[in-house]
Design a protein that fits this description.
Layout (H helix, E strand, L loop, with lengths): L7 E3 H6 L35 E4 L3 H12 L8 E4 L3 H11 L2 E2 L3 H7 L2 E4 L6 H10 L5 E4 L6 H8 L5 E5 L9 E7 L5 H12 L2 E5 L5 H9 L1 H18 L4 H22 L3 H7 L6 H11 L2 H21 L1
Parallel strand pairs: 2-3, 2-5, 3-4, 5-6, 6-7, 8-9
Antiparallel strand pairs: 1-9, 7-8
């Protein structure tokens, strides 16, 4: 089933979508939702389950495969994976019941959609294997810095290619990603990728030029947040709390604050103002953060990571 919610696909929307193929091709709009989630299999326009292949079965690919199978988005018998380190694939096959591919060609011959989850320097060789198979699958690359132009050069100009920038919270079912299809992709192709990623968390369709900024924000962002949680915990320890309590409170606070932003739809500044009473403890702490340049430091981190992503993409 193809589901596209404007430019954003989310797991919650994906799970609650009415089971109808009539949505495919609709202009971006908020579709009617059912009140209870239901299991939905990712299907083609002909309502045939999409066969998904993974070249590379490391941590990120493994997390994606587990999410797709556990959510019933892709039945186990519709998933195949290959990896240079065969025990990775065999472990997933034993755990989830997916097919263990002995080679990249096996994946290409089986799959309608192939996820390239290998190191950037390995992508060219993998593309050669896919091209040599004589098939024309939809190719989704999560390899950092590998451009659509490069992928088209290795696969052929008519290849349907989607470049994706995921992030590590995919490992816990909280993906925040963006994806950019090439010109050869149809609306159905883009919707398929959006639905697949949406089943793992949240995904936005963007222009490829925006993926560097996505890398600097959500791709690298978990590291910034981990550092902030660590700093909050350090502050708690400095104030007299034990490390386990300080870290738990810091992590729960960050998760709770993020949930409030997402669920209320309010601007973060408005939510901040709601807890900063005149002359109180919170505004005093906020003032200290401003004196330390936290806002500028975070913005500069995003810009620096974005610039580095652009540099890597030119190599």
């Amino acid at each position: 089933l193809f589901v596209e919610f404007g430019a954003e696909c989310t797991r919650e929307f994906y799970e609650q979508a009415p089971l109808t193929a009539d949505w495919h091709g609709l202009a971006p709009q908020k579709a009617q939702q059912t009140t209870a989630p239901r299991e939905m299999v990712l299907c083609s326009e002909g309502m045939v389950p999409v066969k998904v292949g993974f070249v590379g079965a490391g941590m990120m690919a493994g997390a994606m495969i587990r999410g797709l199978v556990s959510s019933k988005t892709c039945p186990a018998d519709c998933v195949i994976a290959s990896d240079a380190y065969q025990p990775c694939v065999d472990g997933l096959a034993e755990e989830l019941g997916i097919t263990s591919g002995g080679s990249n060609k096996d994946v290409a011959l089986f799959a309608d959609l192939i996820v390239l989850a290998v190191k950037p320097q390995m992508v060219e060789d993998v593309c050669a294997d896919i091209k040599g198979s004589g098939t024309n699958p939809l190719v989704v690359s999560i390899a950092a810095g590998v451009t659509i132009e490069s992928l088209e050069g290795w696969l052929g100009s008519s290849a349907r290619v989607v470049r994706v920038m995921p992030n590590t919270p995919c490992l816990v079912g909280e993906l925040a990603a963006a994806y950019a299809p090439n010109a050869a992709c149809s609306a159905a192709d883009a919707a398929t990728v959006g639905s697949l990623l949406g089943a793992l968390g949240t995904a936005f369709k963007v222009k490829e030029a925006d993926l560097d900024a996505v890398t600097g924000l959500s791709g690298s962002g978990p590291a910034y947040v981990f550092q902030f949680i660590e700093a909050l915990s350090d502050g708690g320890v400095r104030a007299g709390l034990t490390r386990p309590i300080a870290t738990a409170l810091a992590a729960k606070t960050v998760r709770g604050a993020a949930t409030m932003v997402l669920q209320t739809g309010k601007h973060p500044g408005e939510l901040k103002d709601q807890v900063t009473s005149p002359g109180g403890t919170t505004i005093t702490g906020v003032h200290a953060l401003e004196q330390g340049g936290m806002r500028a430091a975070v913005m500069n981190a995003v810009l620096a990571a974005t610039a580095r992503s652009r540099e890597l993409g030119k190599k």
